[in-house]
Amino acid sequence: MDFQVVVLAGGNSKNLNPLVSKDVPKPLLPVANRPVLYYVLHQLGQSNLKDLIVVVEGEDAALLVGGWISKTFVDGLHVEIAAVPEDIGTAGALRAISHHLTAKDILVVSGDLVSDVPPGAVAATHRRHDAALTAMLCSVPVSGSSDSGSSGGKDKTKKSGRYNIIGLDPCKQFLLHIATGDEIEKDSRLQKHILHAVGQMEIRSDLMDAHMYAFKRSALQEVLDQKDTFQSLKQDVVPYLVRSQLKSEVLLNGISQAEENGNEKLSSLNNQVLVYQILANASTPSFHERYSMEPDGSSQSRKTHKCCAYIASNSSYCVRLNSIQAFMDINRDVTGEADHLLSDTSSDRDNIIGPSPKLGAKTTVGPQCILGEGSEIGDKCQVKRSVIGRHCRIGSHVKIVNSVVMNHVTIGDGCIIQGSVICNNVQLQERVVLKDCLVGAGFVVTMGNEYKGESLARKEK
Amino acid sequence: MGAQKKSATPRVSEDPEDLARNPLQAILLADSFATTFRPITLERPKVLLPLVNIPMIDYTLAWLESAGVEEVFVFCCAHSKQVIDYLESSQWSSKPNFIVTTIESHNSISAGDALRLIYERNVIHGDFVLISGDTVSNMLLTEALQEHRERKKKDANAIMTMVVKQSKPSPITQQSRLGTDELFMAINPVTKQLLCYEDKAEYSKGFISLDKTLIADNPSIILHNDKQDCYIDICSQEVLSLFTDNFDYQHLRRHFVKGLLVDDIMGYKIFTHEIHSSYAARIDNFRSYDTISKDIIQRWTYPFVPDILSGSTAIKVERQGTYRASDVTVSRSADIGSFTFIGQGTKIGNDTKISHSVVGEGCTIGSNVTIEGCYIWNNVTIEDGCQLRHAIVCDGVIMKSGAVLQPGVILSFKVVVGQQFVVPAYSKVSLLQQPTHLDSDEELEYADNTSGTGEPGSDKLNGDITPDLSETAYELGAGGVGYIWSVFEGVQDEEWRQSVAPIPTDKLIKLMLEKDEDDEQLTQDGNVFSASGELKADSDDNGSGDDDNEDSGDDYVFFEKEVEATFLRAVNENVKVDHAVLEVNALRLSYNMASVDCAGAIFYSMMKLAVESPHNSASELHKNAADIITKWQKLLKSFLHDIDEEIEVVLKFEEMCLESAREFAALFPQILHLLYDKEILQEDAILKWADEKEGADAADKVFLKHSEKFIQWLKEAEEEDEDE
């Protein structure tokens, strides 16, 4: 399909402290007992996009991720792992692996995306319009993934729905304006010349940029080379491409390349363009073409490139795991309303229990729960809307509600855990009460302690 | 009836059944409160100007009648008598279900004034249509009215519905085909609420700003650049009272609409109604006059087209959109092209070519005349061999043989163009002299004009014109009568934008090139704006940094002047030193200066005073300086905190001796000594200055040499000190 996929898996995310650790980098954070990266890779595989580069921040994390991928996706996917230094930004990461990019178009996906939107559809939209950039937009999830994490409950309600400001053309095919980050808090400035060319622009604040972009490789590399200050795809590269779409600076080289390669190629390129136009259903030329014409309709005097949008349907699920709140939400959703993401799990839908769990007497595991393999639960326990990892040992009279328990966790008798995340190898002694807490890997909570809304983690040595 | 009705209305409007009983009213502003149609409107009100041979107001009234309006209040201001006379003599005065009432005013200078006056009259009892008398439309009001009423029932703040229509401005000139500037409207696609209205968007700015609260409140906004404001508004009664409450509202759009959109305290809302298949446009300038005339001839405004509207006089529509009145005399060899209107009683000579033009009633057109895209009103005489392109020719004009009108010319009433005379493009010619001043605010300008409305122009004309005939003859060729109005500075370049003539190609090419450059800048600007945060901060800093530097130069000059003035006042009024210090400090803060600058400025003022006070010799000057320094040393000292400031004083003195007060040059060492004696300057400062100057070139060292002795002495004194 001549599409290369770059999965920006990230590494140690500060937003997700203390959930991420050296042993569990962000791509391997469990969502319903599978690393979050699984969901992206699975979707890509489903869309037959099998030529992947997974970019991980930091060598150690790359080794871990690489190990997991080679174990899980033995066949089917052709995956390369690339390690890049930390804190170079998404654009920096792409710049670092730029020499690996060879295909005509590049699909860049964030590794923390949990979504059922087929990436193939985005790629197809991109191809259909022969666009320089196609961004996937989805409606803002109801549960919300607030930037400020679990503590930001109040902010979330206040600025509900204001994630990105996105301008679309009347057919909702083209991306005319995109503002992210700080700009959202200011008055919006919309470029007049784009508005002139299109006539009307719909400005939406209820769409989220899902961080899945298809780029034309030549355009992407051009921008990365020319603008070496660009750090972030979302905040620099994408807005730049959108802004300059009617005054393109990026495709000049693409065309000259074609000319160098001789006329044959050029004509085939023209043919391709023609085919794309037909595919694009272009009975009326898009505003890009009209704009690029001279008023007398003859030659193409201006260079333009197209920026398209793929808007996921309202019913689709699409959340990024970029905050602790999102982590909780996704775990809950994937076991609940969005359980189709776990399509190949064989167990009963409401209550997914791994192959060999041992449940004690009078223990109830409610609907929308997952119990990992090798976990044991003692007598008279209650588990509701929670995910419990592998090889956990849970004592008797334990109540776990709305929580995520990772692997190898030991929970003593009489503990009550609500709305909390318990990381790997944590030990909770008897009668611990946790409410809305985060317990970092390897932490030991001593007997009888009660915590509310705290983040417990071992001090780094 | 007033009081009773008024108290009854609020109750009535809650009940839709009763509401329906209220006859639909309309306010027609028979005055545009603008000057775009000058010089023609100096003599005749705009609403009575013929549009394809029928006065504009007839189109408006005919539409209102057909749209179900039962009562129209025609507000006349400029030339009100002409409007009233016309209406009284016309068919409109005698319609059974369509009452036309005139409201006359002599001192209204804006639409705002007009509506305030109408409010006072208390004649509007429900929803009304607000329209100006130069609007041509054939839209059905029922749907818009229905929407408006339903919204109003649900939300009492929905007080106005504006009619808009699709019309994309030209990508090159950024103006619509009606010649109006591009308009940006932000509309909520679901509710159709108008959120933002920008008609005077600055060309220079490459972007348009949307308030963040708008985006926060509306998940989806459509920003339109492709809509045209039809200037047909359906208003609720509140609109009138709002105008009365906000007595500074003048312009319907610029003040009222924008005022409501910005003001969120009252929460009034404006909605839009888009029409798709029907026609609505307002004649705002000469270009829209041209465009709308063509639309009428091409029957977009059906049923409001000349052959139907004129009723009594028989006008036939022929092939290719040629309209011909019954008794027209056209020579066989004359060529009447497509989309042309020929009025009653007009005679056209041999080999004359007319196309895309309107020729009024009773005109006489000679042989070999070429008329293209022109609007020729009634009783015009055009002699043989004239050429007219894209011009408006008013009633009674005489064009002598061989005269030429270049594109965009406006000939006002009864102008005579001399033989073979070529009227240059875009000229406006009138028998009246151009008003000498042009008010910057075009709406308010009507004030002067209305005083003369009572008399029809011709009386005045005869008086005015005769004495100047010689001059006017010169202006319009042999036998010509009329003044060519000069174009005001700045307007000149824009003249082509709103003229009747099509925009010349070279202009378009020029504009396109400019636009490309602009775009380049824009993308560059864009980079600055929204690249990563740091980048923006940097560039901003650079920008403002440069500004600061430039400013500081100016600022220092101002500051110095202020300090000098303060000092002189202190001297003259014998202000206490402490107070003077306070004042200078205040200046220092307001100009953001350092105390170094204060010291320099004060010393400068002191020395300047010394030079300016009378003296005959150098010694007297020295004495003056000594007196002043002695008297005000405290002031100076309070700004001399450290050695740098003292050096500044020396440098300042040196500069003065070189430039503004050369007389001091000879006295340099003495004054320096004096300053030292008064303990204003410490020896360290003087020595440091000397050291600094040591390395300078010869020219700079003049004063150092002068004061060599003194410095030598200082050095010795220092050494002695050390010895002790």
TrEMBL record, chain A:
One of its GO terms (cellular component) is eukaryotic translation initiation factor 2B complex. Keywords: Cytoplasm, Initiation factor, Protein biosynthesis. GO terms for molecular function: guanyl-nucleotide exchange factor activity; translation initiation factor activity. It is found in: Cytoplasm, Cytosol. Residues 358-446 form the EIF2B subunit epsilon/gamma LbH domain. The keyword Cytoplasm applies. Pfam families: LbH_EIF2B, NTP_transferase. It comes from the Eukaryota. The keyword Protein biosynthesis applies. Acts as a component of the translation initiation factor 2B (eIF2B) complex, which catalyzes the exchange of GDP for GTP on the eukaryotic initiation factor 2 (eIF2) complex gamma subunit. Its guanine nucleotide exchange factor activity is repressed when bound to eIF2 complex phosphorylated on the alpha subunit, thereby limiting the amount of methionyl-initiator methionine tRNA available to the ribosome and consequently global translation is repressed. Belongs to the eIF-2B gamma/epsilon subunits family. This is Translation initiation factor eIF2B subunit gamma.
TrEMBL record, chain B:
InterPro entries: ARM-type_fold, eIF-2B_epsilon_N, eIF2B_epsilon, LbH_EIF2B3/5, NTP_transferase_dom, Nucleotide-diphossugar_trans, Trimer_LpxA-like_sf, W2_domain. SMART domains: eIF5C. GO terms for molecular function: guanyl-nucleotide exchange factor activity; translation initiation factor activity; translation initiation factor binding. It is found in: Cytoplasm, Cytosol. This is Translation initiation factor eIF2B subunit epsilon. Coiled coil: none annotated. Belongs to the eIF-2B gamma/epsilon subunits family. Residues 553-724 form the W2 domain. It comes from Hibiscus syriacus.
